[in-house]
Amino acid sequence: MKIYTKTGDSGQTGLFGGGRVSKDDPRVEAYGDVDELNAVLGFARAAELMPRVDEVLVPIQRDLFSIGALLSTPDLKKMHDHLAKAQVDEGRISELERAIDACEKELEPLKAFIVPGGTTKAAALHVARTVCRRAERRVIHLQREVEIPQIVVVYLNRLSDLLFTLARVANTRAGAGEVTW
């Protein structure tokens, strides 16, 4: 199979499960931002090895592939099938919350806004957090036009909190201080 198909040369792309839309369609914007988030998380994992942090990120990257597939599927039944297969559900949200809680045990309580930066790992996680917030906004925008399961928004919201917390942990474990605003 060739990587180039030339079918997108006119500014349209095919959706998972059929149909073609403009490449700036809200659905494409939403799953494109989720794809970008996944790539940024891959960069964060590669930036500096930090096993306990990286172990949390790998299943999240798999979740994001599933969410991207869901967002690129206009057929509601197929969308719900993707969601069930992906196991992006309340149990998965609870896992993200437990990861946040475990991280917070290592951290000083927040008393001010944190200026993004520090180590390369932490900075990459802060970038991932902002991309996650953009993806969340795009999904919310898409929800105004088509039915998207609310769990996707909840997942992205909780994920951005986790990424912020992981960035703080990365700095703490590296002995890098936090710069406050």
Q: Would you state the CATH class? A: Mainly Alpha
CATH architecture: Up-down Bundle
Strand order of the largest sheet: 1-2
How many domains make up the coordinates? 1
Largest sheet geometry:
2 strands, antiparallel
Classification by helices and strands: mainly alpha
Q: Helix content range of the residues, please?
A: 55-70%
Distance between the termini: 51 Å
CATH topological fold name: Hypothetical Protein Ta1238, Chain: A
- Could you report the average pLDDT, rounded to the nearest whole number? 89
Topology:
Blueprint: E1 12-14, E2 20-22, H1 26-47, H2 51-71, H3 76-86, H4 90-104, E3 114-115, H5 120-143, H6 150-173, E4 179-180
Antiparallel strand pairs: 1-2, 3-4
Explain what the structure shows.
With 181 residues, the chain is mainly alpha-helical. The protein has one domain (19-180): Hypothetical Protein Ta1238, Chain: A. It contains six helices and four strands; from the N terminus they run ββααααβααβ. A hairpin with a 5-residue loop joins strand 1 and strand 2 (20-22). The model has no long low-confidence stretch (mean pLDDT 89).
